[in-house]
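Appendix B: complex inputs.
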Amino acid sequence: MIVYRINSKNVQIKQIIIKHKTMTKELFILRLHDIGAIKFGEFTLKSGHKSPFYFDLRDMISYPEILSGIADLIVDMIKDLDFNYISGVPYTALPIATLVSDIMDIPLIYMRKEEKAYGTKNNIIGTFEKGSKCIVIDDLITTGESLMETAKKFIAEGLKVTDFAVAIDRSNNIEQKIMNNACNLHSLIKLDEILNILESANRISKGQSVNIRKFTNSINLDKTNEKNIQNIITKKLLLKIEAKKSNLVLSLDVDNQKDFFKIIDKTAKHIVMLKTHIDILNDFDKDFIIKLKEYALIHNFMIFEDRKFADIGNTVRKQYRDGIYKIKDWANFITVHALPGEGILQGLFEGVENRSSFLLAKMSSKGNLMNDTYTRNVFNIGEKYSKNVSGYICHANSKEELRLLKNKIPKGQLMLMPGVKLKAGEDETGQQYTTVEDAMQGGADCIIVGRGIIEAEDIEKTAIEYKERAWKIYDDARF
Ligand code: BMP
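Resulting structure:
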């Protein structure tokens, strides 16, 4: 069979000859079952769940007609997409990608499995031009995490990854929805189709396929219904997000109480949290806290003091409890730098009930020193102290980069994004702004907005606009 493909970069028409064209999806599945690449029984997954089925496509390479057949089917699926390089995730998908590259006459590159430090160039095998587009092929997708991990490495080497092609998608559509926000996922065969094919061919019974469907549904439910969340303050926040249909955190950085409460009057109904920098206020007094707590109660929002603690445990313990602000007494959440190590969380939360924090994982200020390793270490500390850490403050300049961060966040913890405005840009001291859409499509649970709202001509109308634009994406992305 001959198909034609227009390569947008070189504006040339390529003739692609699919040699075999004898492979169909149905035959592919039956052959995988024949060779034991699809198994039924009881298998323990990495997550600890007991699965009634298991896929392992590694042995496919010993069956040339299956391997070249799947390559043909993938070519058929991706022939109209725009990319300059083809890559496969080692090891299983690499031979498939090699055949696809050969059929389409598009260069192959791949990422080393044993990675070197990012940015040294040598992580990618093959030659390529920076800024070009690469499609990544994988044999199986379950959570999408490993594909996103691969994409991140390609992006770090200067390539664009906008499409993934996978042979078997066992994610029951859940992860596709997640991935689609950052990259397009093209799945050749979904779990449902596999079950239908095997059932029609009497390879599995109706009962077996019902059990498998129940199993995948229960796993997906388990992932999304917050069962993982042990931190009760996080649960409270999530309930308020639902109740108020708002992901909006207002950053109320003004220097006097009059302006402060004037702005709250206009926005309280629309926000899920109010973020303070208490030390900005010139006229702070005890009554301020009493009034603030009343507002929070009446309008059902939480209070979040953006203190950014960053000292040794013994010092932050006092800073949190004492001084004129006595932050522990009124702020549901605080922000904390994990830089000093885990002692900071021990000092802050020892003996403290009903309080939680967000760790700064990737700041919005240009040139900040939080590199990938730092961010990863922050997630590790946060995961260990999840009783007192509700999530992370993360910023990225695009939804793709943000999605990569989101995928690293430990289960049950949230991602809050500052540096958000209706339009992307930068202020005069390097604060970077990303749009509401990018923030939410990148997976933010809440957006933190300050000047975008408090400096607006019509504060209430603007707060509603931020709230509605964010909520629409959050709500649509749910299952
Ligand atoms: P604005 O939307 O006006 O730029 O305000 C953002 C708020 O979020 C500020 O209070 C700032 O201190 C805070 N913030 C941030 O901008 N970037 C970060 O990385 C972390 C923050 O807490």
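The CA atoms of residues 359 and 392 lie 5 Å apart.
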